[in-house]
Amino acid sequence: MTTSSKHSASRLAMVGLIIFVIAISCTTDRSKRREPKPRNIVLMLGDGMGVAQIYAGMTANGGHLSLEGCTYVGFQKTYSASSYITDSGASATAMATGRKTHNGAIAVDTSGHRLKTIIEMAEEAGLSTGLVATSTITHATPASFVAHNPDRGKYEEIALDFAGAGLEVIIGGGRNHFSEREDGLDLIAQFRGNGYLVTDRIEGVEPGHQGPIAIFTDSLPMPPVLKGRGDLLPRATEMAIGRLAVNEKGFFLMVEGSQIDWACHDNNTEYLVSEMIDFDVAIGKAIDFARKNRETLVIVTGDHETGALAIENGHMESGEVSGLFGSEGHTGVMIPVFAYGPGAEKFAGIYENTDIFDKMAGLLDLD
Ligand code: MG
Ligand code: ZN
């Protein structure tokens, strides 16, 4: 072997080593991966929100919604382990834990065993977490992210699970489930003992305040927008994001537009569009943050459709919309999933509601 061929052989070995080192560092260093991953996830759930609910709100809002800022759209199948037609407990459990369960269950499987939720996993990984809802915070959708109960109606037991869950932000109704309890326990005092600021209004939190907060705005559910709730949901969403974003490890926030479902159970189009537009303003707050922050994935979906809503007629300029309801209950249609931000492309396609958990947990490296 000549000297020059020896040199080229060792050069070849060196190049091979360099390629090997680069390959290793690419698979271990998250920031150098080709696929962008979010540091934060905001999951926005419109209870009872299917395509017709969204389109009714879009029409009433003059032809547009902030939701249109999302860049990827998919569809989820919502059936539960016990029924073709899901309830909010089983569907929220699917998205919070990755497992289908029976209707009425809150983050337990069909045998009643506890299922770990994405909020519990995020807390263990050092992320900050929050829940915002326009129902009582102990209601099925938010409850399925932190509580475990085979019966969604056990509000006082569910409230107990909230007290020890370690969330940084809790905003919703349902103060009575924490303070006016049949067992006499004062969970508000327990929250305060755990370092929480507990108040009944957003204004009750001083701008410079640090540390966890629990805002129970109402003794039981919050009023509808039509009866004076104002812009509480968009403000609560903005406040929650601002507080959670101080954690450099990231955050997981679930925001629920709870009363879209109630409006549709009532077959009330005016109630529906007011709640839909309010929820969309909150979606706009999350997308605005994600646009600036660039490490935040916003996912917007529902848990099931409610009311078998058809739209008979409407007018984009005047905002008039005529809804026709075919049911007073939930229906089985596929529900759209919208996404914006790093990882949004994973939400294109048609998949199970449980896949939403798998995608979120994978993107946050919680699996
Ligand atoms: Mg709900
Ligand atoms: Zn419902």
Set out the fold topology:
Layout: H1 3-28, E1 40-46, H2 51-60, E2 72-77, H3 88-97, H4 118-124, E3 128-136, H5 140-143, H6 155-163, E4 169-173, H7 176-179, H8 187-193, E5 197-199, E6 213-216, H9 232-244, E7 251-257, H10 259-265, H11 269-293, E8 296-302, E9 305-306, E10 309-314, E11 321-325, E12 330-331, E13 335-340, E14 349-352, H12 353-363
Features:
two-stranded antiparallel sheet, 367 residues, binds zinc ion, alpha/beta, 36% helix, binds magnesium ion, Alkaline Phosphatase, subunit A, single chain, 20% strand
What does the model show?
- The protein has 367 residues and is of the alpha/beta class.
- It folds into 2 domains: 33 residues; 324 residues, Alkaline Phosphatase, subunit A (3-Layer(aba) Sandwich), CATH 3.40.720.
- It is 36% helix and 20% strand.
- The protein has 12 helices and 14 strands.
- The protein has a 10-stranded mixed beta sheet, with helices on both faces. Strands 9-12 form a two-stranded antiparallel ribbon. Strands 10-11 form a two-stranded antiparallel sheet.
- Strand 10 and strand 11 form a beta hairpin.
- The longest helix has 26 residues.
- It binds magnesium ion and zinc ion.
